[in-house]
Amino acid sequence: MDNGKLSAVRVAVREAPFRSFLGRQEPSIVQFSPQAGNSLVVDQNDYHFDHAFRSSVSQEQLYDALIQPLVDKLFCGFQCTAMAYGQTGTGKSYSMGMVTDKEPTKEEHLGVLPRCLRDILDRVAAQQENTAERTRITASFIEIYNEKAFDLLSTSPMDPMVTSRCQSRTCMPLASQQDLQRLLQLGTSNRHVRRTNMNAKSSRSHAIVTIHVWQEDGKELARMNIVDLAGSEGVRRTGHEGVARQEGVNINLGLLSINKVVMALAAGHAVIPYRDSILTTVLQESLTSQSYLTFLACISPHSCDLTETISTLRFAKSAKRLRLNPQQMNMARAHQLQLQQKQSMAARTPHIFRRVMTSSTSVKRSRPPQNAGAGAPIQNSSYLMPPKAKESMPLMQLQRTRSEMGLTPKAKKRAREELQLEMGLIAPSVSDMSESSLVQPQVVKPLALPMLHLQRTRSEMVLTPKGERRGQEEELQLDATLVEPSRINFSDCTQEEQDSKAMAPPPPPDNGRRRSRSFFHSSVLSIPEEPGAQQQQPQQPMRCLFFSSPFSPINLQTADSLQMSGILPLETSVRPQVRRSARLNSMCNITQPPPEQQHQQQKNESVLRRSMRLAVKSEKGVVQTKDLLTTQISGSVRVRGVRSKAAATNWMSKHRVMFLNLLNTAEVRELQKLPGIGPKTAFALVMQRSRLGGFQSLAQIESLPIWAGKKWLRVCQANCLDP
Ligand SMILES: Nc1ncnc2c1ncn2[C@@H]1O[C@H](COP(=O)(O)OP(=O)(O)OP(=O)(O)O)[C@@H](O)[C@H]1O
After folding, report:
1. Best mutation site among 94, 145, 255 for ligand 1 pocket (most ligand atoms within 8 Å of CB)
2. Does the annotation list 92 as a binding residue?
3. Exposure winner among 208, 345, 536, 574, fewest CB in 10 A?
4. Atom of ligand 1 nearest to the CA of 98
5. How many CB atoms lie within 10 A of CB 394?
6. CB-based contact 480:565 (threshold 8 Å)
7. Confidence of residue 621 (pLDDT cuts 50, 70, 90)
8. Where are the alpha helices (DSSP H) in 635-678?
9. Are 414 and 518 in contact (CB under 8 A)?
C-alpha cells in the first residue's frame, strides 16, 4: 500500500437534505461545480476541498470515497480519525452512523461506523485465513458533555472520567455487526440527547467511538476514532433555557476550542490551545502529527442557516491547511522510546552545560579512578568529567562552542579556560582547591584536542580581524603561561604563615603593570605573584600539595614564559576566594607523592614544556612542523589553507548534525539555554517537533512559521551555523 498517496488531512463537505419540517422548498444556498467534484460556491465564495458531496450522495459513496482509504491506513498501523463537524441537524450523526433506532437500520442508511467495522472485520477474517496471526478488535465509546468526559460503556456511565485524556476506557470486543449494534445501543442510551427546535434528537454531547486493532501479543496495532461532534448552534435559535442553554454554551465552547486548535495548528502557531476544553484535551493525540485525519463538514442548504454554513466552511478551510506527518503506531512507539532515552540522557547533562555556560570561575572535578594512586599520572584526562557527562560529549561540545558565541570577550576567555581545564590542558585553579584536592596530576590528552582546536577556529570565524588577532594573542599568552608551571608549597608552613602568604597585602601600584584585558583577571588564573619570589622558589622545589601536582596554577609564570608572552608579573593582590580556598585546602591533610611519582610528574612537565615551546616557535614560523600534536597543544596555532577549509567544512557538517540532534531531543528548558533561543521559541520548537514527529533537517526547522523576521538567521549566527 502506498502510504504517500493519501493526504494526511482530508476535508470533505456534505450538504444535508432540506429539513422537511421547515415546510418550504427553496433553492439551496450551496452551488456545486458541475466539473469538479470538490468545489462549491456559497454566498459567492469559492471553496475547494478534497470532496464536495451533494445532498443526494449515498452513505456508501461517502464511505467509499472518504473513509475506506482510512481503513487501508489503519491496517498499515496508522492512527486514523474521522470527525464530523457542523451545524445542528445537518446529518453528522447520520453520516457517522451513530444513530440507533429500534428497527434495524436499512442498508442504504448505514453510516460510517458500521461500514467501517464491517470492512475491518472482513479484512481481519481474510488475514486470518492466510496467516496464523490472530487480530482482535475492540471498541470504546465516550462522550464529552458539559465539559466532562463520560465512559458510556462503563458500569457507571454517569460518573465523569477522572484521567484528563481519558486513557482508561471500557472496551468491548467487536466480532460482528451485532456486537457493534449492542455497543451503540448501550452507548447511545447513555448519551445525552435532547429535542431542539432544529433537531428532534439532537446530540447534546461530543461522542468518540474508538476502534482498536490488537495484535495477538496484546500490542495495539492501530486505532480508528470516529468522532461525532455536537452541532454548533445559536443558543437563541434552539430556544433553550436553563440546563439546555448551558449545554449549548458548552457545546459551542468545545467546538470553538477545536476550531482554535485547528487554526493554530494550520497557522503553525507556537502554542496550541489543547487545554482550552476537555474535547481538545481528549482529541489532542488525533490533532497532532500522529494521525490521519478526515473532516466531514456538514452544511445546511437553507438560507436561514447561511451564517452557520459559512462558519462551518471556514473551519473546513482552515482544517485543509493542516499539515500532519502521520507515523505508524509501532514506529511511533519506537521513536517515542528512542526520544525518551535521549531526553533522559540530555536531562542528566544540563548541570555540565550550565557549568560551562554560566560558570565564570571554576569547573568542578570528579574523583579520579580508584586505581589511580595518589600522585600517579593519569594518562586519560577524561576522568575529569563525570561518567554520565562523557556519554554526552557531542552535546557538551556543542554547548561549549555555543557558550563562546554571543559572550563578552571576557566571558569568552573564561569559557575557553574552562574548556581547557576540562580537556586537561591546564591545572585546576586555586578556586577549585576545595574540591580539587582529589584531582591527580594530568597529562594532556592529545586525542581530546582536535575538537577544541576546531571549535576555536570556528569561533574565530565570526570575529573581526582585530578581535581575531586579539584572541590569538591572548591564547598565545595563555599558552605561554602554561609552559612553565612552577610550584608552591603551603604544607611546610603553619596556618598563620599560609594565611599571611596567601593574604599578603597588595604591593604599591608601580610594582607591576596590570593587564586590563587579561586572562589573569578571571579567578582561574588571577594568581598573585611576587617577582622576587620567582627566583627564590626554584632553590627549594615546592610542590602544590592540593593537587599533588607540579602543575599548580598558583604560580604559572616564569621568566621564560614572560619573555615569550611579553606579560609582566601581576601585582600581588590576592582575591578573597583564593585566600579562602587556600585556607580550606591547606587544612586538608594530603600526603606528598612519593619520589618516583614526583619524578614522573617532572617528566610530564618537561614533555609539556617542550611541546609548548615547539608550538610557540611554529606560530612564529621558526619551526614548520606538521606535527598535529604540537599544533593542537599550542591551541593558538591556526591551520590555514586547504586543510583548514576541509576541517572547517567537516566541523560544520558535524556541528549541524549535533545541533539538529539537540533540537530533536532536548526539552524546553534545555533548548532555551541555546543562544538566540528564548523560552517562547524553545516551547514553539518542542510543539512543532511533536507535531511533525521530529525534525528531518535544519532546512525544515528554518521553514517553520515560528521564526519572525531574521530570527532564524540570528539563531544560526549565535550557534555558529551556516544559515
Ligand atoms: N443525508 C441524509 N439523508 C437522509 N436523512 C438525513 C441526512 N442527513 C440527515 N438526515 C436526517 O436528519 C436528521 C438529523 O440528523 P442528525 O441527527 O444526524 O443531525 P446532527 O447533525 O447529528 O444533529 P445534532 O448536532 O443536533 O445531533 C436525522 O433524522 C437524520 O436521519
Report:
1. 94
2. yes
3. 536
4. 18
5. 15
6. yes
7. very low
8. 641-665, 668-671
9. no
- Which residue intervals of 194-349 are DSSP H helices? 235-238, 242-267, 278-282, 306-320, 329-348
- The CA distance from 302 to 309, in Å, is 9
Question: Closest residue (by CA) to atom 4 of ligand 1?
Answer: 17
What's the rounded mean pLDDT across residues 138-152? 88
- Decide: 218 and 138 in contact? Cβ < 8 Å: no
Task: Assess whether pLDDT exceeds 70 at residue 511.
Answer: no
Binding site membership of 16 for ligand 1 (Cβ less than 6 Å): yes
Q: Is there a binding annotation on residue 711? A: no
Residue 90, C-beta contacts closer than 8 angstroms, at least 6 positions apart: 14, 16, 231, 298, 299, 300, 312
CA of 563 to the centre of ligand 1 (A): 94
| Residue in the structure block whose three cell numbers are 591547606 | 586
Between CA 140 and CA 208 the distance in angstroms is 8
CA 603 – CA 384 distance, rounded (Å): 21
C-alpha span between 528 and 506 (Å, rounded): 9
Question: With a 6 A CB cut-off, is 428 part of the ligand 1 pocket?
Answer: no
CATH number of 9-321: 3.40.850.10
Query: Is 618 near ligand 1, meaning CB less than 6 Å away?
Result: no
Q: Which residues contact 704 (CB under 8 A, 6 or more apart)?
A: 268, 684, 685, 688
The conformation of residue 676, written as its DSSP 8-state character, comes to: T
Question: Going by C-beta distance under 8 Å and a sequence separation of 6 or more, which residues neighbour residue 481?
Answer: 519, 525, 556, 557, 561, 565, 567
Is the complex ipTM more than 0.90?
yes
- The pLDDT assigned to 198 comes to 67
CA 253 to chain centre: 31
- Asked if residue 61 belongs to a known ligand binding site, the reply is no
Residue with cell 581530546: 448
Which of ligand 1's atoms lies nearest the C-alpha of 201?
A: 17
The answer to whether the CB of 312 is under 6 A from ligand 1 is no
**In the beta sheet, which residues pair with residue 202?**
194
Q: Please report, for the chain, the start and end positions of each structural domain, with discontinuous segments joined by +.
A: 9-321, 407-507+521-639, 643-718
CB of residue 89 inside a 6 A radius of ligand 1: yes
Residue of 93, 98, 112, 191 to mutate, ligand 1, most atoms within 8 A of C-beta: 93
- Pocket lining: 92 vs ligand 1, CB cutoff 6 Å: yes
Q: Is 508 exposed, middle or buried (0-12, 13-18, 19+ CB in 10 A)?
A: exposed
- CATH class of the domain whose range is 643-718: mainly alpha
Q: At what angle do helices 112-130 and 177-190 cross, to 10 degrees?
A: 150
Residue of 424, 412, 375, 433 lying closest to 554 (CA atoms): 433
The reply to whether ligand 1 has any atom less than 6 angstroms from the CB of 251 is no
Does any ligand 1 atom lie closer than 6 A to the CB of residue 353? no
Full 3-state SS string of 236-268: HHHCCCHHHHHHHHHHHHHHHHHHHHHHHHHHC
Q: Does the beta carbon of 90 sit less than 6 angstroms from any atom of ligand 1? A: yes
- Name the grid cell of 156: 457507571
291-337 pLDDT, tens per residue?
Answer: 788 999 999 998 888 988 998 999 898 888 887 777 665 555 555 55
Name the more confident of 144 and 471: 144
pLDDT digits (tens, 9 = 90+) for 340-350: 555 545 544 44
86 is in an annotated binding site: yes
